[in-house]
Amino acid sequence: MGHGKIRKNKTCLNCNYVVENKFCPNCGQENTETRKSFHYLFTHFVEDLTHYDGSFWKTIKALLFIPGKLTKEYLAGKRKLYVPPVKLYIFISFVTFLIPNMLPDYSFREEIHSEKEVETNEIEKKEINDVVVFNGPSIANMTQLDSIQNHLPDAEKFSWLQYQAYKFTIANKGKISKSELREQIKENAVHNIPKVLFLYMPLFAFFLWLFHDKKKWYYYDSGVFTLHYFGFLLLIFTISVVLEWLFALVYNGDEISGLIGIGTIIYSFFYFFRAHSTFFGEKKYISRLKGLLLFIINIFLITLFSIALLAYSVYTTH
């Protein structure tokens, strides 16, 4: 970085070598004061991730608009031109976690919560007598729930997810409205998206490696491709959240939000096929066939991960 105050002592703190100039000729460490201000730490963190020399913006441009280029360039040895894939993914994950939580609630245009909405929620809470979830039976309390669960045949018992949903709803009966419950579950699910993608990455890379020539492509290559593609997914998800928030400031409706969501899904779908074709360099029909099979397999597995995410979201909603 080069903005710290140079130490008067010429002995390198890292290797005890004599430092005549700014950097140690033996290990390369900068001979600056060890105690830094918070401002220095923050700017060093941002600069180290984003490379203010221009590589960060060049990386983001390629990641968003030129599918497959970053992976191809990185594995070709051009590694100083762009932010390394692991560092890029960590930074994007940080931004994905930070930005949605920083955006203020646009409902200030409607005075945070209108009296009508508050009154509706209160009515919902008071009117809840018996609990019904997943179009299941009406249950009044935990005693009845456990009785049903214990006496039903194994094939007819509630699944773990159904039981947890009933348990949670009964515990919060009269305390939280159905709309509030849906919002809490939705919020938890959105916050867990980066975790699910991170956990799924090794499996995604494995199927990529499995579908291509093992002599030409290593699992490492598929891993780099996966880091870039999942980084793209997180980044475009964050952009869509910001766009939805901006449009919600001036337009009170779900149509724009729906269009942004559809556009994001379509572009993500197109991006994968283009990146796959660009990187692996196969004939178009072979690349598209493999891409389609990979897409079907991953959609199925991601659906399972999403169900697990929903179950976790219900379980962790308080």
UniProtKB/TrEMBL annotation:
It comes from Flavobacterium macacae. It comes from the Bacteria. This is DUF3667 domain-containing protein. The keyword Membrane applies. The chain crosses the membrane at residues 81-99, 196-212, 224-250, 256-273, 293-315. The keyword Transmembrane applies. Keywords: Membrane, Transmembrane, Transmembrane helix.
